[in-house]
Amino acid sequence: AAPHRVHNFSAGPASLPLEVLQQAQAEFLDWHGTGMSVMEMSHRSKAYESIIAKTQQDLRALLNLPANYKVLFLQGGAYGAFASIPMNLLKGSSGKADYIVTGTWSQTAVKEAKKYCQVNVAATAEATKFTTIPERSTWNLTPGAAYVHFTSNETIHGVEFPMEAPEVPEGTVLVCDMSSDFLSRPIPDINKYGVIYAGAQKNAGPAGLAIVIVREDLLGRTIDTCPQIWNWADQAKNDSMLNTPPTYTIYMCGLYFAWMLRQGGLAAMQANARARATLLYDCIAQSNGYYTVPVAPACRSLMNIPYRILGTCAELEDKFVKEAEKAGLTTLKGHRSVGGLRASFYNACTMESVQALVAFMRDFQAKNPT
Ligand code: PLP
């Protein structure tokens, strides 16, 4: 019998492709004839070395990553990176960093960075309640800043930067939190970035891992008080195995990366993401104002779509979430800080799930008219 699976719209940890879960299940007790689960393997064993090497190789293939970038698999999630970014980029610098604030996650990154450096908020969309992205021409970048940080997709507010990297002056180190749109689209100009990082638990695998991609020439700017586990140069030298890494999480990411390659890589992920989001945005547009999206059309996310019922009708929204849950459509409540509803469509989300959501929304509107 087919396994019981709901339509899961969680913003993270998020659903994984059924095929990936089934592969993990099939080799759970005995990985490739080793007589043990990957979970039970020494990270120094030949078997595990082959797993982590293949995981990195497939990630590099997906991203078309130039050889002068290091891939680090680190613990501490994206929150860890909020601290490890300044700690690894400040030595010998002006001690200043520019941040572009487009929502909760970039605000959180600023808060953490302030412990280590002088933060300049070079642009903020706070005045529009984070429903827009500040025009590049309005950014007030600091000459000589150690780096510029932005968040390519704000998971809570549902605003996403275009696929192309924002233009910054030559020599400026561009740092991006890609946690919630990493691996959902190609990064055509990847060499414009100094550092890209992402928590794995949305588009890349289970929680417990931060993927940090850093240009080699930036290694060596680490302040002396940086904890060793977040010292990128040390971790790069040790192939992310300075200490015991989250071995099983890395293995699961590896299965997911191989799946993405089989599907056609990031161009295919992007085509799927566009098709999913278009279906929901169109359904909302056709609802005659029953459902509304607060975000400006030009920067609407393909990954996280916040929306409201009748402006801000919390009563109907509560009812919607409860009835959806009963219909097998789960985790549609908006983040507690903004309210409303939110559907998150990561790589593992199928068109079938989005079709089920849209059908439910039309039915709900018909049964609960204005
Ligand atoms: N940045 C973004 C864009 C996120 O969506 C999240 C989590 O949802 C984080 C950072 C924090 O990630 P973590 O929970 O891995 O620390």
Please, how many helices?
A: 9
* CATH superfamily (homologous) name of the largest domain: Type I PLP-dependent aspartate aminotransferase-like (Major domain)
Largest sheet: 7 strands, mixed
Percent of sequence in beta strands: 15-25%
Bound molecules: pyridoxal-5'-phosphate
Biggest sheet: strands side by side, in what order?
2-10-9-8-5-3-4
Q: How many discrete structural domains?
A: 2
**C-alpha-based Rg, rounded:** 21 Å
Low-confidence stretches: none
- What is the second-level CATH architecture of the largest domain? 3-Layer(aba) Sandwich
- The mean pLDDT is 97
Secondary structure category: alpha/beta
Distance between the termini: 42 Å
Family: Belongs to the class-V pyridoxal-phosphate-dependent aminotransferase family. SerC subfamily.
Domain Aminotransferase class V: 7-357
Enzyme class: transferase
Protein name: Phosphoserine aminotransferase
Please provide a written account of the structure:
Belongs to the class-V pyridoxal-phosphate-dependent aminotransferase family. SerC subfamily. Residues 7-357 form the Aminotransferase class V domain. Its EC number is 2.6.1.52. Pfam families: Aminotran_5. This is Phosphoserine aminotransferase. This protein is of the alpha/beta class and 370 residues long. The chain has two domains: 21-262, Type I PLP-dependent aspartate aminotransferase-like (Major domain) (Aspartate Aminotransferase, domain 2, 3-Layer(aba) Sandwich), CATH 3.40.640.10; 265-367, Alpha-Beta Complex (Aspartate Aminotransferase, domain 1), CATH 3.90.1150.10. Helix content is 34%, strand content 16%. It has helices at residues 18-26, 46-63, 77-89, 104-113, 232-237, 247-263, 265-285, 314-326, 351-367, and strands spanning 7-8, 69-74, 96-101, 118-124, 148-151, 153-154, 159-160, 174-177, 195-199, 210-215, 291-292, 304-309, 329-330, 341-344. The strands form four sheets. Strands 2-10-9-8-5-3-4 form a seven-stranded mixed β-sheet. Strands 11-12-14 form a three-stranded antiparallel β-sheet. The protein has a two-stranded parallel ribbon with strand order 1-13. Helix 6 (247-263) crosses helix 7. The longest helix has 21 residues, at 265-285. It starts with 6 loop residues before the first strand and ends with a helix. The model has no long low-confidence stretch (mean pLDDT 97). Pyridoxal-5'-phosphate binds at residues 12, 77-79, 105, 151, 155, 177, 179-180, 199. Pyridoxal-5'-phosphate is lined by residues 12, 77-79, 105, 151, 155, 177, 179-180, 199.
